Amino acid sequence: MKAGKDIALANKETLIAGGPVIAPMFEQYGVSMLPVDSEHSAIFQCLQGIPKGGVKKIILTGSGGTFRDVPLEEMRTMDPEVLRKRSTTHPNWDMGAKITVDSSTMMNKGLEVIEAHWLYGVDYDDIEISIHPQSIVHSAVECQDTAVIMQMGWPDMRLPILYALSHPARVPADLPNPRDGRDFGDWWKGEGKDGKLTFSKPDLEKYPCIGLAYKAGRRGGTMPAILSAANEQAVELLLTKVIDFLDISVVLEKAMDMAEAENKVVLEPTLEDIVEADRWGREAATLVSKTLKTAA
Ligand SMILES: NC(=O)C1=CN([C@@H]2O[C@H](COP(=O)(O)OP(=O)(O)OC[C@H]3O[C@@H](n4cnc5c(N)ncnc54)[C@H](OP(=O)(O)O)[C@@H]3O)[C@@H](O)[C@H]2O)C=CC1
Ligand SMILES: CC(=O)[C@@H](O)[C@H](O)COP(=O)(O)O
């Protein structure tokens, strides 16, 4: 950014943790952050042509992850090994293990709320999450005049990557569905199979990570860095069989409480403060996970 280069940002954790330091640099160095994350690319695409002041709300769509149709009560009675294994699978997207587990807890959507706040300067009260099982609408913008603009396409990262590179141009491309090779034109001819789009509110009891992310975002300063790092560590602890899937949000809530109790939140952080928050967040998640094990 200091070299005056625009950035195509694929790694969401960077901006979630470093937002307070990075966001002021957009203006300071006259550079743009071009989103690659599919939801933020969708928002960026929807924003083209909406004048300043025209946006009322951002609506982030999320699949609900692999456990979307499994009631919380049932998850509590399931074999932890089955939950662990299934949490690394995704209904629509083919992604790395960490982000896939984040989709299963919906922490991915919570982190994306913080990412959207920094990318678009939108207040947390004006960012909503909608569960959209088909992952065809990649996010939406509600305008002041009530118009809602959505971006659609297959669950395929090639289009967000292409748009970050071609913006503002729309270049010809052939991007068939990565899972079955069908052209997106087929979606319209799906005779009800593909052509159904549904939306619903997330259950915050089932997905406590959403509430934790809003809380961290609103607290500001280094709290999102602490949460993101603790989450990375918690996912690692899940994958290495130290904790169970349903422990993730418990670990994160306790790590955030610990950050408050130990005055670890720096409200106007430097880059060094953020790096330290990242280190501390990982350590806190590990410590908390040990108390869980001891309690068990
Ligand atoms: N996959 C997707 O569709 C999407 C991903 N993202 C974001 O992209 C990022 C990566 O996700 P994803 O591709 O799924 O993850 P993967 O786990 O598939 O890939 C991560 C890659 O990063 C490399 N890596 C990890 N740590 C370092 C490091 N310290 N220095 C250099 N390279 C490193 C890994 O290398 P190695 O294998 O050698 O460890 C690996 O190649 C995340 O921030 C995620 O949120 C956002 C939207 C969609
Ligand atoms: C591909 C991408 O950008 C991910 O963020 C994806 O959208 C995750 O799926 P969920 O909607 O299940 O979190």
UniProtKB/TrEMBL annotation:
Pathway: Isoprenoid biosynthesis; isopentenyl diphosphate biosynthesis via DXP pathway; isopentenyl diphosphate from 1-deoxy-D-xylulose 5-phosphate: step 1/6. GO terms for molecular function: 1-deoxy-D-xylulose-5-phosphate reductoisomerase activity; manganese ion binding; NADPH binding. It holds the Pfam family DXP_redisom_C. Its EC number is 1.1.1.267. Residues 33-120 form the 1-deoxy-D-xylulose 5-phosphate reductoisomerase C-terminal domain. Keywords: Metal-binding, Oxidoreductase. It comes from the Eukaryota. Gene3D superfamilies: 1.10.1740.10, NAD(P)-binding Rossmann-like Domain. It catalyses: 2-C-methyl-D-erythritol 4-phosphate + NADP(+) = 1-deoxy-D-xylulose 5-phosphate + NADPH + H(+). InterPro entries: DXP_reductoisomerase, DXP_reductoisomerase_C, DXPR_C, DXPR_C_sf. GO terms for biological process: isopentenyl diphosphate biosynthetic process, methylerythritol 4-phosphate pathway involved in terpenoid biosynthetic process. Residues 152-283 form the DXP reductoisomerase C-terminal domain. It is an enzyme of class 1 (oxidoreductase). Its cofactor is Mg(2+); Mn(2+). Belongs to the DXR family. This is 1-deoxy-D-xylulose-5-phosphate reductoisomerase.
